[in-house]
Q: What sequence folds into this?
């Protein structure tokens, strides 16, 4: 379970939000409303105040990296720091299953990152996060750059993650996606979450 | 085989300065637009060097530790200003200046004191004739290394922020996420001193050595001094660059291992 209480960051205010295991919560709202900043605040990527806890363990009781291994943010723009795709995975062998379900063949791991399209980068960034086995996924417009077919693949993988008891907090401006995946959703207006 | 230096008359210098006038004329003719910059730079050089000559002469004559210390402080101030003016991106507040000046002073002073207390041993140890030129060389080279390193680091982190943030979001500690940037910044900082070491003697004769030879010193003695100075420069540049880059990395990240680009000036977000 993910618990958020009195979360305050620059342009973000969330008073109370609880996500049960297997639950997906969609944060809706126009761009610039603070959806990304809220997800970044939960991941402890920006300085914040307030309490955020996973399964009763408060984030300040652990180091930043320990927290972010459990509560993992997947941004709208994926960053790459090595030349080859495989170097971005911790255990490239075990990730083949997820890769296939996201529409990649195992050879993809040997590709240079420079060869990837924006959509491929976005899907691989999601695979890269799954590879680390997070408890909570914070997904910022996860299908923003994807066509219909790829979107369906990504949503399938997220769906299975939820079935296994994972928790997803997602920012999206697409009402249909929120309905397909989100058990609950709320609007973000000027940094305030209206539940 | 040490001989006396051939004295230079003002007319000799004026004749040499004519070369710059020819440069200026060329620049006007070819519309290079650097006549003014060159004239200002040349005038500055003449005034600055003549002043320094006078200051050094007075300093050597007086042998006062306080006077020497004052000159050191002034030199550090100018060098710190130089570091700042060479940065395309600066840390907010006084952090760039603070990190630059502190690490440069630490590196240059400790290496100079080492040289004065072991290899050179003038009496008194702070004798301005040795302390000031040595410290000047250490400061100048540490300054170059530090400003190159800091500039490279802050530019790269800003440009590749997504590569850093992706690693941080995946739960990597800051020293892992920053490692490639630290390495590149260090290489950038140390390259000039490495290049000048490997090319010296073959491609060019180092300025200090040339000056000593022209001033009548035995070439072997001049070479020995040059080697000493190069080793000291390597040390000061390394110490200064490493400490400055690590301090800056500490500043653009925080205890929660976040990337803090809000601490780079004019770069909100």
A:
């Amino acid at each position: 379970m993910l618990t958020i209480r009195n979360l305050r960051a620059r342009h973000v205010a969330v008073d109370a939000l609880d996500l049960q295991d297997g639950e997906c919560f969609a944060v809706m709202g126009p761009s610039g409303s603070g959806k990304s900043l809220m997800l970044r605040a939960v991941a402890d990527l920006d300085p914040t105040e307030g309490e955020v806890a996973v399964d009763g363990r408060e984030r300040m009781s652990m180091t930043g990296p320990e927290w972010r291994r459990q509560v993992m943010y997947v941004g709208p723009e994926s960053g790459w720091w090595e030349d080859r795709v495989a170097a971005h995975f911790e255990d490239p062998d075990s990730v083949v299953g997820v890769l296939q379900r996201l529409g990649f063949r195992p050879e993809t791991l040997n590709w240079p990152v420079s060869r990837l399209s924006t959509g491929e980068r976005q899907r691989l960034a999601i695979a890269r996060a799954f590879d680390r086995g997070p408890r909570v996924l914070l997904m910022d417009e996860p299908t923003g750059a994807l066509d219909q077919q790829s979107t369906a693949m990504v949503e399938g993988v997220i769906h299975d993650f939820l079935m296994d008891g994972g928790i997803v907090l997602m920012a999206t401006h697409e009402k249909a996606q929120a309905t397909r995946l989100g058990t609950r959703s709320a609007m973000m207006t000027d940094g305030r979450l209206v539940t | 085989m040490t001989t006396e230096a051939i004295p230079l008359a003002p007319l000799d210098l004026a004749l040499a300065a004519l070369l710059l006038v020819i440069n200026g004329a060329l620049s006007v003719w070819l519309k290079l637009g650097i006549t003014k910059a060159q004239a200002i730079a040349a005038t500055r050089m003449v005034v600055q060097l003549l002043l320094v000559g006078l200051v050094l002469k007075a300093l050597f004559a007086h042998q006062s530790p306080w006077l020497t210390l004052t000159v050191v402080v002034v030199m550090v101030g100018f060098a710190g200003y130089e570091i700042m003016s060479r940065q395309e991106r600066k840390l907010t507040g006084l952090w760039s200046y603070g990190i630059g000046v502190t690490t440069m002073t630490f590196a240059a002073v400790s290496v100079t004191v080492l040289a004065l207390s072991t290899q050179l041993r003038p009496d008194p140890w702070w004798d301005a004739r040795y302390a000031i030129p040595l410290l000047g060389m250490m400061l100048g080279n540490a300054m170059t290394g530090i400003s190159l390193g800091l500039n490279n680091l802050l530019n790269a982190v800003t440009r590749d922020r997504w590569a850093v943030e992706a690693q941080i979001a995946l739960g990597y500690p800051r020293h892992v996420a920053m490692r490639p940037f630290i390495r590149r910044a260090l290489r950038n900082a140390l390259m000039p001193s490495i290049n000048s070491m490997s090319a010296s003697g073959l491609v060019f004769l180092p300025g200090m050595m040339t000056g000593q030879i022209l001033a009548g010193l035995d070439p072997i003695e001049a070479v020995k001094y040059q080697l000493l100075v190069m080793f000291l420069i390597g040390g000061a540049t390394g110490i200064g660059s490493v400490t400055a880059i690590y301090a800056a990395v500490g500043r653009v990240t925080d205890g929660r291992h976040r990337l803090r680009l809000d601490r780079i000036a004019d770069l909100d977000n």
Notes: The mean pLDDT of chain B is 91. Residues 87 and 151 of chain B are 5 Å apart (CA to CA).
